[in-house]
UniProtKB/TrEMBL annotation:
GO terms for biological process: cell division. Keywords: Cell cycle, Cell division. This is SOS-response cell division inhibitor. InterPro entries: P-loop_NTPase. SUPFAM superfamilies: P-loop containing nucleoside triphosphate hydrolases.
Amino acid sequence: MRNEFTKQFNDLGFDVWSAVPALETTTNNLDDILPRLHALSLRTNQWITVIGARRDLIEQLVSAGISRSRIRWVHGRSQDEREWATEQALLAGTSSLVLSWLGELSPRMQQRLKMASKVSQTHSFVFNDLPSLTPLH
């Protein structure tokens, strides 16, 4: 299975086994990078930390083969809380992947998250599009 997935993954143009952990900012849909996330999650038994996502995004990760027991889901009520949680998750070094749904980041915050990712050797994906919330009325 692992070889089959690696072949499928490499067919998409990624070389996950030599990938250097880094912060990647993307506007892509989660579906576009699920194979890459799954392959990265196989590298260690550490947490997959998800910050600011909806429940259906967690279900997408589980459907892609990431164990629910390895997903640490953090909510954030504000942009500041999500940014802080992302930085702390990276600096803790207990996650193999950190996925964050943040709005626009200041250049200073982008630099802080890049440095935290580099120092901790943690792959991090920051999605610029915030998941829409269910209206209250």
